[in-house]
Structures are given as structure tokens and as C-alpha cells.
Write a structure and sequence with these properties.
Protein name: NAD(P)-binding domain-containing protein
Low-confidence stretches: none
CATH class: Alpha Beta
CATH architecture: 3-Layer(aba) Sandwich
Order of helices and strands: EHEHEHEHEEHE
Radius of gyration: 14 Å
Organism: Carbonactinospora thermoautotrophica
Number of domains: 1
Mean pLDDT: 92
Number of helices: 5
InterPro entries: NAD(P)-bd_dom, NAD(P)-bd_dom_sf
Largest sheet: 7 strands, parallel
Shape: globular
Strand content: 15-25%
Structural class: alpha/beta
Pfam family, one: NAD_binding_10
């Protein structure tokens, strides 16, 4: 499991929830080196990346089944798809605004969790973690979380 944007409040909350749920391995990307130590002490493998380097991000994704993509998904979507090529990645989980259509998932299964507030509210965090745990879902799934900003 990989979480992008783990140095932001929602990403940190998702990493913590995955660890509480017993995830065997959690990897994360952060933009700030200052966030590395706090995540590493939890047993998270951390890479500092702004996601524009497909080789670096691809190395982080290598062998992971799922990525929860929270690092500015709209702006970094194409970088993620490029980096994921030939890594074994199967599923992308990401966030979007209410009513938003899913981004083109390329050859990956996609779970789009739509929510008005992208803050670490328990319902949103739980929906993101649950999307990772539903291994049988294929294609594109849209989950609406009814939280307002």
C-alpha cells in the first residue's frame, strides 16, 4: 500500500488508519523532508518526492497493489499513471469533489471517493481505507461521503 501526500493532514490520517487496520506494509510519499522522521518511526517507508519524477515514484509503487493518491490528484494524475507503468500496481484510490466524474484510470481499477471537504474527517478516512480493503472491486467505483466543509 502506498499513500501519496502523507505529509498533509488527510494523508497522515489515512496512514495512521491503515496501520491501525493492520496493513502489512505502508509506503508513503511526502514533499517535505521534515515529515519523514514522524512517519518512519511508525514503520512507514517514506520517499521525498513531488511526483514529477516517474522513476522515483515508480520505485515507490513497485510491487504495491494499491495507491491512495492524495497529493494534489488533479495536478499529478498523469505523473502517477506514467510512474505506475510496469510496477504491478492494480488499483488507484483518490479523492474528488461531489459530482466530479472519475479521472481516466488507464489500465487500473479506480475508486473515486467524492467529498466536499478533503480534511481528515473520520468518514472520509474510513472510506479511503475501506476502498483499499475491498479487493474484489474492479473497474471504476464511485463512493460519495456526505461531509460538508
Amino acid at each position: 500500500m502506498v499513500v501519496t501526500g502523507a505529509d498533509r493532514p488527510l494523508g497522515r490520517a489515512v496512514v495512521a488508519a491503515l496501520l491501525r487496520a493492520g496493513a502489512a506494509e505502508v509506503r508513503a510519499t511526502v514533499r517535505s523532508r521534515a515529515a519523514v522522521a514522524d512517519l518512519a518511526v511508525l514503520g512507514v517507508r517514506v520517499a521525498v518526492s513531488d511526483l514529477v519524477d516517474p522513476l522515483r515514484l515508480g520505485a515507490v509503487l513497485e510491487g504495491a497493489h494499491t495507491v491512495i493518491h492524495l497529493d494534489d490528484p488533479a495536478a499529478t494524475w498523469d505523473y502517477l499513471l506514467e510512474a505506475a507503468e510496469d510496477t504491478g500496481l492494480r488499483r488507484i484510490v483518490t479523492v474528488g469533489a461531489p459530482g466530479a466524474g472519475p479521472p481516466d484510470p488507464g489500465s487500473y481499477d479506480l475508486v473515486l471517493v467524492r467529498c466536499a471537504a478533503h480534511e481528515p474527517a473520520p468518514a472520509l478516512v474510513n472510506a479511503l481505507v475501506a476502498a483499499d480493503q475491498r479487493r474484489g472491486v474492479t473497474g471504476v467505483e464511485v463512493v460519495d461521503v456526505g461531509i460538508t466543509g
